[in-house]
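Appendix B: complex inputs.
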Amino acid sequence: MKKVMVGNHAVAWGARLARVEVISAYPITPQTQVVEKLSEMCADGTLAACFIKVESEHSAMAAVIGASATGARTFTASSSHGLLYMHEMLHWAGGGRLPIVMADINRAVGPGWNIWTDQNDSLSQRDTGWVQLYCETNQEVVDTTVMAFKLAEQLNVPVMLMLDGFYLSHTAEPVDIPDQELVDRFLPKREAPYKLDVEHPHAFGALVKPDAYMEMRWLMQEALRKVPQALEAIEKDWMRMFGRSYGAIEAYRAEDAELLLVTSGTVTSTARAVVDARRAAGEKIGVLKVKMFRPFPTTLLRDALSGVARVAVLDRNVSPGHGGIFAEELRSALYDLPAAERPEIFGYVLGLGGRDITPTVIDDVIEQTRTGTVPSRADLWVGVNL
Amino acid sequence: MRELRLHGRGGQGTVVASKLLAVALFLEGRQVQSFPMFGVERRGSPVTAFLRVDDKPIRLRCEIETPDDLIVLDSTLISATDITAGLKPGGRILINSDRAPEDFPQLLERAHVSTVDATGIAVRHGLGGKAQPIVNTAILGAFAADSGLISSRTMCDAIREEVPMLIDANIAAATEAMGAVRHAAMGSVAVREVARA
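Resulting structure:
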């Protein structure tokens, strides 16, 4: 069934198709229509989930942690400062190896007080042990939400999917809603290997002394290392059943490219349009979309970028005092490539706080990357009016 | 690709209008993308929404700077804001107004202009209050009749599918507006003045 819907509703549809059992959310700003739609679905009976309203995002995450520990399939959504308020609990979900799925609408962090898109809210949660997937279209949002549960439950890791505020969350476009019966076959009911169960009592969250803590972290790391391969297999299944797949990274018109734009989120779409126009004019240029930020797809990126002359990373985020976060991680991933194979990396910081990234902006970035000398600074800011 | 920009005031249903039009175009098999100008909408304040339509998947994900068409749900915005900013030469403007298109000579210099009294129609059909009528379905009916972009029947189908209440009244308003559009081609005023001289 195809429907025109906004990204927020695409998330809600994904959660509904996954037959989530417990949703907890704080309903006030910066919350979005994601949980508004889910509460409607719970109220009208189209989704048989327990919806727990709470007094803060910290409690929302605490509630789904508790519910997930009982073996339930759980979901929540937040944005910006709401996500930041969850920070402590995100660590508990990650360290607790609970397969919670959440959506974050990427919105800038204050001050200045701003409700528009950038990625600093979710990127500042990168060390909490969650898988992070950045989406480009509303179709990808629905599909990724369902796939995220399969990934999470297979490896016992929580998964966060991201949508650019407004550019996806409030943009209406056609979405093919997967058939429920097929989704049920793709994603059966969760079978938790360990759970809170009064018949078979276990203790969770107990004191772990130095003799075992490090081993817990090692196992968490090993689980995250398995994510790229697991996601690939899950996407193959999805492709077979629904005819669509996305990849942890996706190369677009990258064959023989001398310059690649590395993007994430909705700017990828605009970059595709710019690249189409330049390819038509004979330029050897392409796009490399990075969907998965955690775990960082180091091997995939090395393979995709080895031998490319120049790479422009478009970061809609910044680590203050350092640079664009995707660019920094990419530099570190490519450092031990042989020098002859290692691209020159131009790291651009742009589009912060919802500033529009138009084809003209991307054209400027391409020109600077194509003709410029290798920059002396790691962060090249685009469009600063000072 | 054709790009549209809608201008209204908070409470008139501007954002919903962009979604309704997207649904209607989608029902006719087109690719669509609609979104509000990213801001904080408040009742009475200027609201802008965008719509892209194409026969192939739409790649651009940024605001529309050079629209082909404008739909103006509140004619007071014409003097309050620069609604024609970036409008392509020879573009089309549809205005909610009880006046004739020739009464907007400055707009006619650079675009085709049509008018429809969507406010009067909405009030007659009991859509919103008299002080704050919801004019979106009426002006979309006029747009269907005027633009050639979408059939009148599909426009009504989209209203039936998307509008949560007063469906019959909304369809009646759209249908009445389809027959109530006045159109003037770009440059018409100049021609009329030449004739008078």
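The first strand of chain A starts at residue 2 and ends at 6.
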